[in-house]
Amino acid sequence: MKTQRIRAAIAAVSLLAMSGSALACGESLFRVGKGVSFREYTAPLPGSILVVANTEAELALVERLAAAGHDITVVSGSSQIGEKVATQRFDVVLAYFSDRAEVESQISSFSATYIPVAVGRSEESHAKSDYKRSLRNDDSVKTFLKTIHRTLKDKA
Predict the structure, then answer these.
(1) Are 52 and 94 a contacting pair, CB within 8 Å?
(2) For residues 28 and 103, what is the distance between their CA atoms, to the nearest angstrom?
(3) Rounded to whole angstroms, how far apart are CA atoms 155 and 146?
(4) Could you please report the per-residue DSSP string of 105-153?
(5) What's the whole-model pTM score?
(6) CA 12 → CA 3, 9, 110, distances in Å?
(7) Fewest 10 Å CB contacts: which of 18, 74, 93, 118?
(8) First to last CA, the chain
(9) CB atoms within 10 A of CB 74
(10) What's phi and psi for 74, nearest 5 deg?
(11) pLDDT tens digits along 19-53
């Protein structure tokens, strides 16, 4: 009987020792819900987005938004927004803040929400004061996704 207690105590001590060393080696990253992320970004509410994009950086951003799950349509100028909005339904329109008058006139009779993209600090301050949500052209993909998500959540 005494030997069984000693064996049980040795087993308990060895289990404690092994679990402590496992955490010290970094295996804690492999626990479910901790550490490692399998997908960089995912859109919880995928939406249909019309984007004005011209540069390689803007097109790369568009690819990342599409990879996150959004349905993206790209136009090269704000003058093309009207014909796209008339034939397709969009939840969000991302276009330059400097083209806001033209964009707003083209989407005014549709349900799309315009999120202006500011270039520079002065445009950014005006966009923030004039619109509920705005972005800066050098914001991260994560910031774009969060802003789009909040807009889609408000519309739902």
Answers:
(1) yes
(2) 50
(3) 14
(4) HHHTTSSPEEEEEE-SHHHHHHHHHHSSS-EETT--HHHHHHHHHHHHH
(5) 0.73
(6) 14, 5, 68
(7) 18
(8) 67
(9) 18
(10) -115, 135
(11) 554 454 544 444 454 444 445 678 888 999 999 99
